[in-house]
Fold this sequence. Notes:
The chain has eleven helices and 18 strands. It is α/β, with parallel strands linked by helices and 362 residues long. It has two domains: 6-102, CATH 2.40.50.100; 114-359, Alpha/Beta hydrolase fold, catalytic domain (Rossmann fold). The strands form four sheets. It has an eight-stranded mixed β-sheet, with helices on both faces. Helix 4 links the parallel strand 13 and strand 14. Helix 3 packs across helix 4. It is globular. The mean pLDDT is 92.
Amino acid sequence: MDDRIERITMPKWGLSMKTGKVIDWFVSEGDTIAKGDDLADIETEKIAGTLESPQEGLLRRIVAETGVELPVGATLAVVAPADVPDGEVEAVVAQAREQLESGELGGEDEIEPATVEVGGRTISYVTMGEGGGDPFVLVHGFGGDKNSWLFVQQPLSESHTVHALDLPGHGASGKDVGDGSLDTLADTVLGFLDAVGAERAHLVGHSLGGAVVAAVAARAPDRVASLDLLAPAGFGPDADVEYLRGFAAAASRRELKPLLGRLFADPSQVTRQLVDDLLKYKRLDGVSAALSTLLATLLDGDRQAIDTPALLAGVKAPVTVVWGGADRILPVPDGVELFRVDAGHMLHMEAANDVLARLRRP
């Protein structure tokens, strides 16, 4: 078979994704596609995302029908030069359908999280990729976890080693946050770098995580290759304090779901599974106390307590700031050089491809 024939397959977004379905194709058979083009919207049990083309070429066949549940690894489309005979393309399509009917797909090994001890706390993380150079380290926001990077970590891992960790009090990490200060959280990230043997790293932080990685850069500039701040805390006094306090206190689906809708420009992104996962987390021992402690780091009364620009004042590493234009949790600040994307506060989930375009390094 002609080795110029390439398959575009169902991606694996996040540790738990086993299946997905194409909701809408943005391209047609016969189109010439470029690497990075938006190909289709794919819905998973957690959230919908846009599939970005992993290669360039002529789209010869679309294999996946819209609305059909398919396992990770299933062939969605076939790309090949125009001089490849139709018969060879059809043979690849037939093989893909046979694989699907046989049930041989979907049995790939799960990526298991690992743990390290940092400052007497257990820190859970997942690593993807084995690329050379400085690794990426992804740091989530208040109430989030490493799984919030599901649309970002895998694409980045094609060229870099990428670690996504759970901060103390979050995800599968220990729930003791100590005093919950920015210094304590920055110490955790620095200790994590030591634990995984990273002398330097590209640090990516979302919301509270953005302030945390800025604090790391201020304290240990030689450990930071670059900073990417996604809707970072501490760039202005305003915040949706009703959301922050409500999230920390919410104990039921009825309380939690409308709050989560504020995180997205499109509230329909909040699936039942997303709500269930967060409720499960919030009911763990120690979570309520941890979130309450961290609120004191984030807020001074009804205003933000962190001054992130002051932390960045002496930082020489490249700094990129990206914000969702429809962010209702931390409004887009004035007078800050930044890139806007069409999203709410969870821009790395809602506009992942646009965010990735800003994160990728040579």
